[in-house]
Amino acid sequence: MLSPKRTKYRKQHKGRIHGASKGGTSLNFGAYGLKALQPERITARQIESARRAITRAMKRAGRVWIRIFPDVPVSTKPAEVRMGSGKGSPEFWVARVAPGRIMFEIDGVPADIAKTALTLGAAKLPIKTKFIARIGDA
User: Residue 102: inside a domain, yes or no?
Assistant: First the structure.
């Protein structure tokens, strides 16, 4: 699973995801992509699950690019612990994804296989997504 090698601080504020994506809104590597339509935090497990589904559907042909990286630590407190006494320890990593962000790109496979693969990958994610193709393809 993806996680940063090191960070400046162990814990971060939760924050909010508002507005459209500032960058990463166009296809840069592959011919087909999966674009986010909602703001959400995507966990490292969800990214890995989607990646596996995509590569399996492509029968390991072509190439997959992951355009998001989980760099935000999410801390949780143990079950049945009283309020107070500080913030919990970091449990997992998430990527903040804004609407319009390209999350996955693929290339080297026909359009129908690409659409099937990205649809299977999208089923593993907690947000609405859209299949996009480079102009001239599909």
Answer: yes
Among candidate residues 97, 107, 112, 110, the one with its CA nearest the CA of residue 67:
97
Q: Residue 60 maps to which CATH number?
A: 3.90.1170.10
Q: How many domains does the chain have?
A: 1
Q: Label residue 84 by pLDDT band (50, 70, 90).
A: very high
Per-residue confidence at 47, pLDDT binned at 50, 70, 90? very high
Judge whether 38 lies within some domain: yes
Is pTM, for the whole model, over 0.85? yes
